[in-house]
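Let us begin with a simple case.
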Amino acid sequence: MPFIEYKNIENNINDSSSNYDWLWGVLVGFLLAFVQNEIIKFKQIKKLGEIFNFEINSLKTVYINQIESLRQFKKQIQSNSTESLLKLHLLKKLDTIRLLDRVELAKYFQKRKNKASLGYVSEILNNLEITYHVVLELEIIHRNYTVNLNLLLNDYIKNLQKLNFIIRKYSDYPPELKANDELIKLIDTFISNKNMNLIYILELKQNFHNSIRSEITIPTFIIDNVIDFNTESLLIISNIENINKNFIYSLENIETTIVGNFKNIYKEEMPL
């Protein structure tokens, strides 16, 4: 019978036990790291959800302020005021919330809100994204409107210089005829030493330009100059009226979109 070396068997058992201890150590370390990582993720998702809820709740007032500001601005444009200021309340606030991770937010709502998770988050963020781009569009439209309006107002002022030429032609005109000249009276009444702002220029369409076109007799020696001046002026005024009309139409469409986004997000009508 062969001799059994008990010492070697004992050493093998001890070596095997050491191997298992190392393996258990690895498993325990892995589990601890996994648990720690899950805790960190849980805290991050929780923080993200809290940020989302806070921003959505605080955004409600900003939406309302934006619509109030937009409506007030529209009234000023409708009254032909050039001193109105457009305030864009939403852009900065939306920048914070629109870039939040949708998937992580969905996890938060799955655990805490019992709502349609990703669909719920997506509906809110999609409406915020629409609002964001609409307000950006509003900023661009307003900038273009201001530039074009100023160009047209400057064109009108430049066109008034033609009146100087017309008046100079009167220098050799008999004084007794000048006193009864309807055009000179119109110029003195509506043009001389007047502040040519938008409101006044639009009023001149009826008070001054239409009178030239249909109500007064123009001396033959300046009639071509007067018609040229008046036609150009009426065209400029018509262009001003058109860009005002189009701008107001754009404001109304943007207002409708923002109010609709508010309703989709908060499931209530805007309290205005």
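The second case is a distinct protein. As before, the sequence precedes its structure tokens.
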Amino acid sequence: MVAKTTMNGDEGMASMKTGATRIARELGELAELEVRLLAADAREARRKIVPGAAMIVIAIAGLLAALPILMAAAAWALADATGWSLASCLALVGLGGIAAAAVTAWLGWGRIVAGISTFKRSQQEFVATMQCLRRSLGAFGDRES
């Protein structure tokens, strides 16, 4: 009887060792898949963020370099064409420049937000993986009891 108990104990340990090895191997595979997904998301995010950031830089550079001269010329042309005061034409043209810059920055920001939201996929996949792992470990613990 003692030998039988020892044998069953050895079989139980072997079964537990096999189960633990399987879980460790699956954890390794899951970790590798999570890292691959994160890397893919990072590449996709960079692909989306870089053009948006470039658009914002170009918008700022354009405003700093060309707009003051163009705005002054447009204001003078508007004053000549309408007979309005030069000050009111300068203000009107300035507001138009601000609106154009705001639209460009808004479009660029939208691209950046789209790139950042790419990581939600990794987060959701990680949560699903952890839930599956908890269920598996819970089932494994239930069998041992």
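The chain has a mean pLDDT of 82. The radius of gyration is 32 Å.
Keep these points in mind for the review questions at the end of the chapter.
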